[in-house]
Amino acid sequence: MKKIELKIIGLSYSQTQSGAYALVLSEKVGARRLPIIIGGFEAQSIAIELEKMKPSRPLTHDLFKTFADTFQILIKEVVIYNLIEGVFYAKLVCESDGKLIEIDARTSDAIAIGIRASCPVFTFEHILSSAGIQLEDEIAEHAEGDVAAEEKVEEKPKNTLAGASSEELNNLLDAAIQEEDYERASEIRDEINKRN
Q: What integer is the mean pLDDT of 60-88?
């Protein structure tokens, strides 16, 4: 499967879950966004590194990076490889003594460590098509800048849920209701109703 590179575009306080934050990733080439709900500690750790702040004592993610450097383990990339019932699964791909090693991690921890290692973050099309969102404003911006981009935008479905299976839609609907994201839940319900 072809990997799609992502970039971090922001962190914001979650409107749906108290004490949680939304980490928003975007395709490096493209307009789809991937919002991931993370805890406050991980959000703080990511924000500190993005702002290039230096805490007085190392945070857990700093410790992990120093440990890897000390034992000559190269952190090569973060891969968000699965999405099951609204939970993202990630791994750190590392290299030690010429061997590739994959370490399972929570997505928030993997990204917090990955930005400290200045390594890229990747995902796959099936994850972006089921959990990604695309804002109408961004579609228009891409279209204005480039005629070729306009053709690509027209090919993409406006509703990012169109590529999801019925089972994925039901899982997304359950997750949206649990998160009290009723606007998203209504979009998912509409997609399910279109198919019936």
A: 96
Residue 40 lies in a domain: yes
Cα(97)–Cα(74) distance, integer angstroms: 10
- Tell me the C-alpha distance between 65 and 78, whole Å: 13
Q: How far is CA 97 from CA 71, 77, 116, 117, 118, in A?
A: 10, 17, 21, 18, 20
Q: Give the pair of three-digit tokens for residue 116.
A: 């400290």
Q: What is the C-alpha separation between 124 and 138, in angstroms, rounded? A: 21
Are the beta carbons of 20 and 39 closer than 8 angstroms? yes
For residue 30, report the phi and psi dihedrals to the nearest 5 degrees. 140, 180
Distance of alpha carbon 136 from its chain centroid, rounded? 19
Which structural domain, as residue segments, surrounds residue 10?
Answer: 3-130
CATH number of the domain encompassing residue 65:
3.10.690.10
Question: Is residue 31 in some structural domain?
Answer: yes
pTM of the model: 0.69
For the residues of 4-46, what is the DSSP string, one character each?
EEEEEEEEEE-SSSTTEEEEEEEESSSS-EEEEEEEHHHHHHH
Tokens of 176: 């949206």
Per the structure, the count of domains in the chain is 1
Q: Tens digits of per-residue pLDDT, 42-55? A: 999 999 999 999 88
For residue 70, tell me if it sits in a domain.
yes
